[in-house]
Amino acid sequence: MKEKIAQRHKAAAPEICVVCGKEFVPGSGSPKTCSKECAKILRKKYNQDYEKAHRNKRNARRRELYKQKKAREESKMKGYNNSWDQLVELMNDDIREAVHAELAPCTNEEFLERYLELDPDFQATLDQFAPDLET
Ligand SMILES: [Zn+2]
Description:
- A two-stranded antiparallel sheet has the order 1-2.
- The protein folds into 2 domains: 68 residues; 53 residues, no CATH class.
- The longest helix is centred in the middle third of the chain and has 47 residues.
- It is 69% helix and 3% strand.
- It starts with a helix and ends in an 8-residue tail after the last helix.
- The structure holds zinc ion.
């Protein structure tokens, strides 16, 4: 008896398929689509929407991390610039001159980047001049 009422209720209220727009009477399948084919299309669309939302989130997170990293680097560079004369004193003369010959005129940042490539151990010295930052 209950089932019959439910059936009549359904029959009295046809749905519009969200995929193809056709009117249909909801049965045991999807309540939103008229057929298996349309259900498949809808599922695919959901997956795409999910993937898209997910991707946007991922990109936003990546941008945020990049911004934080950039800010940390800028803050570090400020610390280096403040102690630049001291830093230069601590550099290996040969490497320093080699970098200077190669890059000058350049910014301190460019100089440091290249210098560290040639003298990676200098990073430890550099760290002593960096302001305290959470990593
Ligand atoms: Zn349909």
